[in-house]
Design goal:
The chain is mainly beta. It contains one helix and eight strands, in the order αββββββββ. It has one domain. The strands form three sheets. A four-stranded antiparallel beta sheet has the order 2-1-5-6, with no helix packed on it. Strands 3-8 form a two-stranded antiparallel sheet.
Length: 150
């Protein structure tokens, strides 16, 4: 069975998330300087976008997507086809709302500051354990959060 070799997986992830040129194949030059991160109350699915089942400000007052630098400082070097944020990703502290549970997260275009809209998702995944958001809660994705290309 054919598959993507680890060296290729790491090169693709480093190119997309860390803006590291893939020598001989692709330049890291591009207009995206950040990766937008969103929280979701359900899996947005393969056909979804960054707005699909995204947590709402009514359920988590104070919520906004956050940007992580598309750089070697924003993401750790890919290894074995997996990449992680270089530092914890903290969302704004909740200032009220009816409460919502973040079960999934996604990466997308960083258009806007903070990023908004129906941007195409690059990767998404489950949050374990889920994060119950609400007044006084600061949702956090840790450096143990991984994106895997297999």
């Amino acid at each position: 069975m054919a598959g993507i070799h680890d060296v290729t997986e790491d090169a693709i992830l480093n190119l997309l998330f860390r803006a590291v040129t893939w020598s001989g194949y692709a330049s890291a030059v591009g207009s995206e300087t950040n990766i937008g991160i969103a929280l979701h109350t359900a899996d947005p699915g393969d056909a979804g976008n960054a707005s699909t089942s995204e947590i709402t400000t009514g359920a988590y007052a104070g919520y906004t997507r956050v940007n992580v630098a598309r750089s070697t400082g924003g993401w750790s070097a890919s290894s074995g086809g997996s990449i992680s944020p270089a530092a914890n990703i903290d969302f704004p502290a909740g200032t009220g709302g009816t409460g919502a549970t973040a079960t999934n997260w996604s990466t997308s275009s960083s258009s806007g500051s903070p990023p908004t809209g129906a941007a195409a998702i690059l990767w998404s995944g489950a949050i374990s354990p889920s994060i119950v958001c609400g007044n006084g809660v600061t949702p956090r994705l840790t450096t143990a959060t991984t994106i895997t290309l297999t």
